[in-house]
Specification:
Elements: H1 9-59, H2 64-71, E1 74-76, E2 79-84, E3 98-105, E4 112-121, E5 126-135
Antiparallel strand pairs: 1-2, 2-3, 3-4, 4-5
Helix pairs in contact: 1-2
Length: about 140
Amino acid sequence: MKSKAPLTLMEQIIMLLVFALSAAICLQVFAHAGEISDEIEKRGNAVTAVQNIAESLKINGGDLEKHAAFYGGTCEEDSWKMFFDSEWKPCEEENSEYYVEILKTENENPLLGTAEISARSNDGEVVFTLNTAWQEVEE
């Protein structure tokens, strides 16, 4: 039986390079997975915030003033805005990372009110948008 000769220096260097390359690829995969997880968490929090705001808007019959009194935030003519921190908790504008905005939209049915609710990062990137509608009450 012939015994194997010990690995040469060149073979050891090649094996070490293959190992280093494999380790680098694994680290990149884990880093990318972390970024994807953060993005999914951000989007999930935005969806929850926008859905809650849409329900509040419907409860208040599309009246942005009542909605602001009920939910918070600031109201102007046909828009409403509220600011959130990195954990999607309400905060002041100067401490915010995100905001949610309601913009009333026009439609052809006078008995149906509509609005677009958008969650955005402070740099303007849209995180999530929802179009919602409610029944208008005739007075």
